[in-house]
Amino acid sequence: MSRSLTLAAAQMGPVQRDTSRDEVVDRLIVMLQDASELGAELVAFPELALTTFFPRWHMPLEEADHFYEREMPNRYTKPLWDEARRLGIGFALGYARLGENGQRHNVYHLVDPHGETVNVFEKVHIPGHAEHEPWRQFQHAERHYFTPGDDFPVSEAFGGIVGMALCNDRRWSETYRVMGLQGVELILIGYNTPLAYAPDPTQNPLQAFHNHLVMQAGAYQNGTYVVGVAKGGFEEGVESLAQSVIIAPSGQIIAQAITTGDEVIVARIDLDHTRFYKTTLFDFERYRVPAAYRRITEQRGVARSGDGV
Ligand code: CDT
Predict the structure, then answer these.
(1) In terms of CATH architecture, what is 4-283?
(2) How many angstroms does the Cα of residue 193 sit away from the middle of ligand 1?
(3) What is the mean pLDDT of residues 182-196?
(4) CA contacts within 13 A on the Cβ side of 88
(5) Cβ atoms 117, 90 nearer than 8 A
(6) How many angstroms separate the CA atoms of 142 and 131, rounded?
(7) Do residues 11 and 265 make contact, with C-beta atoms less than 8 angstroms apart?
(8) 47: annotated active-site residue
(9) Is the distance from the beta carbon of residue 231 to the nearest atom of ligand 1 less than 6 Å?
(10) pLDDT for 304 beyond 90
């Protein structure tokens, strides 16, 4: 049996603060067309793809409103929806959403080849800080700008079971396992990862290693494909990691970007290869021991048995 799918990761180079959404969408459409020519049926774009990574500045929320989208598609992104439908190709797009209820989420929007929404994922792990921290060279104020989501749903789409995550979510093993427990076969992850991590600069030279480490482990331990797609390069003077990848359920990297700019990578995958891992080493039904994992959901920080937990 085989369930093949041709997948693309459309890595982006930087989007500067004064770059218009029209210019960004033009770039996305060029990559969508490239991916389609290469046979792709699904294209993953990065986190916060339509704007610069604005959490690097701390400003009053009302001043940041223009970085958020109130509806989707909107007048800027409609050409992307139209072109994708014309090409018969699905995509996942990351952007900041300001809901009618005033809630602000960092979202990943999955669209099928007919232009219909499959699902909109709200980023769960919101990194960085909420207050202005002047000691930093640049801010990472995501906790000021975004409310966390509270689930990792999966959807039947593109012939398989598809889930999503955004950037910092990829560092947490729970992200993959919660989707693994729903039988996920393909996880799409968009990211913006500055190379300089102010709280602990010893991690700076390890950014690329940690990026692949967590996604390869998540793929293998849950028998799923993972696509990690960056917005990389120098954006407003801040250098971000590129190295977008498509990873097999074995944990092996199938395709990897070689630039730090706009670049499409493609892989033809067989979703049935997830079975190799899901029915053997990681046969959850047979081998998991949930009674031994109670702390995972009952406890947030570190505590030992002697502490009464
Ligand atoms: N966008 C995002 O989540 N970036 C974080 C940066 C590190 S936390 C300041 C990441 O996990 O890559």
Answers:
(1) 4-Layer Sandwich (3.60)
(2) 5
(3) 98
(4) 3
(5) no
(6) 10
(7) yes
(8) yes
(9) no
(10) no
Task: Name the one residue in this structure whose structure tokens are 């598809």.
Answer: 162
Based on its alpha-carbon atoms, the radius of gyration of the chain, rounded to whole angstroms, reads: 19
What is the biggest distance separating any 2 CA atoms in the chain, rounded to whole angstroms?
62
The pair phi, psi for residue 230, each rounded to 5°, is -100, 155
CA–CA dist 243, 222 (Å, integer): 22
Give the integer Cα–Cα distance in Å for 231 and 94. 10
Distance CA(293)–CA(22), nearest Å, equals: 48
Q: Tokens in use for 292? A: 């031994």
> At CA 98, angle to CA 96 and CA 103, rounded to 5?
110
224 in ligand 1 pocket by Cβ < 6 Å? no
Q: Are 221 and 281 a contacting pair, CB within 8 Å? A: no
Catalytic annotation, pick one of 41, 122, 123, 231: 123
- Domain spans of the chain, in order of start: 4-283
For residue 278, pLDDT over 70 is answered with yes
User: Which token pair is 166?
Assistant: 């955004």
Q: For the residues 199-206, what does the mean pLDDT come to?
A: 98
Using DSSP, state whether 23 is helix, strand or coil.
Answer: helix
Query: How far is residue 188's CA from residue 170's CA, in Å, rounded to a whole number?
Result: 10
Question: For residues 107 and 283, what is the distance between their CA atoms, to the nearest angstrom?
Answer: 31
What mean pLDDT value characterizes the chain? 97
